[in-house]
């Protein structure tokens, strides 16, 4: 089945999470990556390709690409191109049984056009979801609000994956969220202080990401 990856906000770590999954399981499971709407010239698709070393056959083309690094509703308006949300939701629904990692833009309530949000798209596409959250201050509020919004739409949330640096709040943040929301913990990944080379990234994926191999059985049965 396809999995939709969203976050509790912008620059939380969705693309990094997708990089981890693709690097470890794309070849083994035949996964593909799709970013339906890309805003800004710094392509997440290219980032993952460069970081993982996977060739283009594992990456589907963006449905929409806009130059302005902003919310899709504004970026599309600036180029006088409306996002056809009906067509997009039908397309995602049609691929829901394939093994595709679908990365959303921003968080749950990012508008794709005026008054149509990411949460609307996921609800209509009927794709289960992974929520990526930070380990830092503010994550309890942001994560619990995101989970509540998703559950009100009866969207299947497979669990939360935490990405961020080590800090004094990290352990309690994760415990509080998991216990309060009564939701599954998919795992955590500690970000290093400096940018990783491809080799360092791949070494960390092998050694630190999903050591119990929870994700293949849960996400792609």
Tell me the total number of β-strands: 10
Could you report the average pLDDT, rounded to the nearest whole number? 95
CA-based shape: globular
* Uncertain stretches: none
**Biggest beta sheet attributes:** 6 strands, parallel
Topology:
Layout: E1 3-7, H1 14-29, E2 32-34, E3 37-39, H2 44-52, E4 64-66, H3 72-78, H4 85-94, E5 100-107, E6 111-113, E7 116-117, H5 118-125, E8 129-134, H6 139-152, E9 157-164, H7 170-181, E10 185-190, H8 198-208, H9 214-219
Parallel strand pairs: 1-5, 1-8, 2-5, 3-4, 8-9, 9-10
Antiparallel strand pairs: 6-7
Helix pairs in contact: 1-2, 4-5, 6-7
Could you characterize what this model shows?
The protein has nine helices and ten strands. The protein is an alpha/beta fold. The chain is globular, with a radius of gyration of 16 Å. The termini are close together.
Write a brief caption for the model:
The protein has 221 residues and is an alpha/beta fold. It is built from 9 helices and 10 strands. The model has no long low-confidence stretch (mean pLDDT 95).
Summary keywords:
single chain, 221 residues, alpha/beta, two-stranded parallel sheet, 9 helices, 42% helix, 21% strand
């Amino acid at each position: 089945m396809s999995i939709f990856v969203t976050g509790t906000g912008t620059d939380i770590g969705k693309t990094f999470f997708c990089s981890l999954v693709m690097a470890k399981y794309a070849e083994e499971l035949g996964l593909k990556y799709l970013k339906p709407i890309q805003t800004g010239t710094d392509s997440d698709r290219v980032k993952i390709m460069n970081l993982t070393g996977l060739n283009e056959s594992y990456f589907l083309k963006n449905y929409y690409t806009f130059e302005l690094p902003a919310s899709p509703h504004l970026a599309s308006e600036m180029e006088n191109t409306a996002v056809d949300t009906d067509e997009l939701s039908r397309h995602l629904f049609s691929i829901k049984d394939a093994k595709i990692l679908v990365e959303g833009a921003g968080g749950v309530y990012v508008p794709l056009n005026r008054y149509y949000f990411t949460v609307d798209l996921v609800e209509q596409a009927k794709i289960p979801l992974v929520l990526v959250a930070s380990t830092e201050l503010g994550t309890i509020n942001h994560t619990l609000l995101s989970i509540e919004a998703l559950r009100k739409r009866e969207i299947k949330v497979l669990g939360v994956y935490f990405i961020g640096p080590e800090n004094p709040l990290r352990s309690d943040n994760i415990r509080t969220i998991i216990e309060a929301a009564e939701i599954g913990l998919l795992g955590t990944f500690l970000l290093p202080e400096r940018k990783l080379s491809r080799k360092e990234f791949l070494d960390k994926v092998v050694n630190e990401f999903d050591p119990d191999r929870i994700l293949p059985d849960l996400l792609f049965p």
